[in-house]
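Hey, sorry to bother you again with one of my protein questions. There's a protein on my desk that I can't quite get my head around. No rush at all, and the record is pasted right below.
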Amino acid sequence: MSNTIDRRRFLIASAGAIGGGGLALLAGCPGKPSSGPAAAKSGPTATGSPGKVGANRLVTPAGVDFEAVVAKGKPRAELVAAALAAYGGMSAFVKKGDRVVIKPNLGWAKGPEAGVDTHPEILIAVAKACKEAGAKEVIIGEHSCDTWMVVKDTSGVTEAAQATGAGVVGWEDERLYQEVEFPRGQSTKSDRVARDVLECDVLIDCPKFKHHSATGICGAMKNQMGLILRPQNYHQTTDIFAKDPNLHVNIADLATAVRPTLTIVDLTNCCLTEGPKGGPGSKVKDFNTVIVSPDIVACDSLGTSLLGICKVEDVPHIRLAAERGLGKIMAPGDPKVKNV
């Protein structure tokens, strides 16, 4: 599977080199130099419908009376299975023949014990569930902050792919992206989004929930910054949120456009300090929890409450996304939260 994926991306990149005049490998995290938003962008090409850039389907599961599932107290694979079972299984979201993109948080060249990357056991469980539901192709994709080849070797994602037959892709080359409009964006009006994401049938956001020095928490919406070419630009332009200029507004803008079919939150061993990368003195705690919902706002608000290092109201992009109708802010005791 991965050889086929690598060949397809080689062909895309080669075509880009013929038409675009060369290869540029670009880093994707705050603190790395940027060539600037104006220089990076050509005229946007509208893709998808307003409020949803891409071809992935949005699903309202039938026959459920809850908005989110919180699974606790089991091994990681069983947490994922139990949460999905509440919806009737992954087949509620993935259909036979689907092309699925799983977007974990694999930003850093750290082992799973550091609590900063999505745990490989979670990725194995999610990819297997997609395959069992009949997915034709499953891709685990990321635009990492640390060097991608090192991240692949240290995060456990290669082993996860080998265990499931999934492909692994590092979205480093700018020719793997397409400029698209964000019809509801307030600060970010368009951006370059990974083509895999624009073309998939199902997009699964699979973040590691953890501390982040700029936003309080790094959750599902923040994780989507790994789908764009230059996430460091989201930290620029002055805004009312002085803690990190305009970052929360840009995260909410991205969430209005790139909307995952499903979010599966890894709240197992989580970095509670010195995030997002962690450090030698970082505190890591295992909450032995997975959250699953098609509602990205519910996932981020529940995750923030369970992580316990800040309040939901201290994370402005959660409120901004809720105000734009992208989901509901929920607390762990909400009757619409199913515990399994």
